[in-house]
Amino acid sequence: MIDVDITGHVGTFKVKANFVGSSGVTSLFGQSGAGKSTITNMIAGLLRPDRGRIAVDGEVLFDSQKGIDLSVRKRRVGHVFQDARLFPHLSVKANLTFARWAGGRADSRPVSEVVELLGIGSLLDRRPGNLSGGERQRVAIGRALLSGPRLLLMDEPLASLDQGRKADILPYLDRLRTEAGIPILYVSHAMEEVARLSQTLVIVSKGETIAHGPVADVLSRVDLGRATGRHEASALLEGRVVRIDQEWGLSHVEIGDGQSVQVPGLDAALGEAIRLRIRARDVAVALQKPEGISIRNAIAGEVKSISDEAGPYTEILCSAGSQNVRARLTRASVAQLALQPGKQIYLLIKSVAIDRRQSAPASGLANDDAVSAQTLV
Ligand SMILES: Nc1ncnc2c1ncn2[C@@H]1O[C@H](COP(=O)(O)OP(=O)(O)OP(=O)(O)O)[C@@H](O)[C@H]1O
């Protein structure tokens, strides 16, 4: 668990960060220049906050009132940067063993265990210059883990990779989430990454953490649209695969209340729990269950709130059983259908809008230890 309550500045830029991250992955999400790196640099000890407190798993790293300010080394924060920053003249194996030695901790994980976790066994004799970007990042994560950190800080680790390499590395991050055994602070301005990987989501805007909490709760907050980006507005549905229709290549995912959605091309076993990210712009609304329509998913729901944006668009937040779905509609449609809080509706989601390319096995969603999660974004 990571517990941060600080204020500080860098130049004239002020930051105010206040959040608690549960075990697993806590993501700091915000636009470029929002202050994510400034906040993480304060956590790592590279910048000094003006006041406040930072603790990881009960160990205080900084407390201005008590005069505690641990050195970078004593904070034991494993840092993974956008560029891997490996020693170019050393082999992968030497990079890893050096990190373990330099960490100086007898209780660091064995190199072989980390090599297996990240699938880098075949790379050990190679030099960083001969590796792909994704391979280099996996080695960089291994190096950070072997230094014996109490917190793994990943600052835009996928930002320099193309889509294909990102897809290669995400399954390893899924594993890391459950197997690293330490909290992970993940910094990104890519919503699809944070929606997939996080248990806790922290939104950073103009130097301040303006929201934090379980990822599904924060994503369903319509009022954060400006900070998270309207285009990326989405909600998470958690469910379980209850039927696999081989003939049509469709998996039926039950999302509670006997309702299910159909997802094409899903690589998940029967009974497996998954997390679906549904974008607001991929959801339409009907007052009756439609017939003679190609859209396969019509989920019964109820309007909870309607945003009061100016302009042609608006966003509605709807309950779907105990979960939430967001829909981005024109204001004209909202008026025509007389939508208002409490109105019973059907949420229409095109199956093909749920993108299977981002799916991967994972486990360990917060609040449900029975869930092994797979995320589609
Ligand atoms: N050393 C510095 N002196 C003055 N201003 C700084 C310094 N470092 C960062 N800033 C400013 O602080 C603001 C926040 O920067 P920061 O790097 O924390 O944002 P970020 O959210 O990590 O952005 P990105 O996603 O682009 O990395 C920016 O306006 C930046 O120009």
How far is the first residue's CA from the last residue's CA?
26 Å
Number of domains: 2
CATH topology of the largest domain: Rossmann fold
Strand adjacency order, main sheet? 7-8-9-3-10-11
Give the full name of the CATH homologous superfamily of the largest domain: P-loop containing nucleotide triphosphate hydrolases
The pLDDT mean sits at 86
Could you tell me the strand content as a percent range?
A: 35-45%
Helix percent reads: 10-25%
Q: Largest beta sheet, briefly?
A: 6 strands, mixed
Q: What class would the helix/strand composition place it in?
A: alpha+beta
Quickly count the helices. 10
CATH architecture of the largest domain: 3-Layer(aba) Sandwich
Which molecules other than protein and nucleic acid are bound? adenosine-5'-triphosphate
Keywords: ATP-binding, Cell inner membrane, Cell membrane, Membrane, Molybdenum, Nucleotide-binding, Translocase, Transport
Domain ABC transporter: 1-231
Domain Mop: 292-358
Protein name: Molybdenum ABC transporter ATP-binding protein
Question: What would you say about this model in short?
Answer:
With 377 residues, the chain is an alpha+beta fold.
